[in-house]
Amino acid sequence: MKKFNKLFHVSTYTFLVTVVGVVLPLNVFADAAVSTIGSYLQDKYIGGETDRTLIRYGNWFGPGWWGGSELDKTVGMLAPIDSLDAVAQKHDFGYKVAEFLGKARLDIEARYKAIADAIAARDAFALSTDPAKWPIPASNPTLAKTYLERIKLGFPNYQQKLNEIKSKVPNYDYITDKDLIELVGKEYPDDKKFEAMVDTEVRSWKIQYEKLKKKKGLEEKEIVTPLPAATECGKKIFPNTTKYELHAISVGKNSGKFVLNYAMGPYPDRIVVEHENMVLHDSGCVTGEKAVTLAYAGNTPIIKVKIFPSCGKEFNPPFGWSFKVNCPE
Predict the structure, then answer these.
(1) What is the pLDDT of residues 178-196, one digit of tens each?
(2) What are phi and psi of 304, to 5 degrees?
């Protein structure tokens, strides 16, 4: 979710109190809340995660993160990893539609973004408490449940909030923007029509995604590539060929955090890091050096690293990339 962190904090502050400098919920003594707040605070204040990664999950859930893209105006083309991630995808497109409808009207934009927030909360609450039973099952149910609980903690009364939003109808002016008139006529859509517009955006993205998958070089060849013997963490890895490579790195623990360092050549390359089929990091097509801190949890200490020289294109110049998965502290 592109801006879900702001949404989480703003909505939560309406029912939180400050205790010894730390924000805690009024129902802090409830077991579920204690567990959720505990993991959140540990990640933030002990684990050292930033707001950029603290609420990031999958390819869509998290601030400044939609479809694997961190660009505000450019959506990424990575599919949701499970049903919770799909909720986040719809939320992102809800914000996109809200920004379109609110041209030059910040109050209108804010209203529709609030509706998008409530829709996301509604859909998240509708998911089973067992992520393995979701329509798109979570590959890591434990981690998925953690992020589901964080949404529930931030939106305990989403239906009431949605009703309040709908009851406070702003003083709409007649629409004068030509693009808006062509799309919705001379009146702003109600919440049902707004959601239908959002669903149309999601379907449009899916069509583009399927087209991209069919293009030469975008089908991931690693699906039929056997996993090689694991290399110990802390070792710098260099290319063996100019083609796609799959590496297995043993970090020694089934859960924790590690720093990934990588350097790409003058031509854009792509590195994808996974743990138990969950994407922890997808660089996109990039050049230069970068270091990122990644969190993982599951039943195996093996991290998969996939390298796409020249982003999978046939042109593979003899310039090397390198990466290192540092051992967890």
Answers:
(1) 666 566 666 778 889 899 9
(2) -95, 130
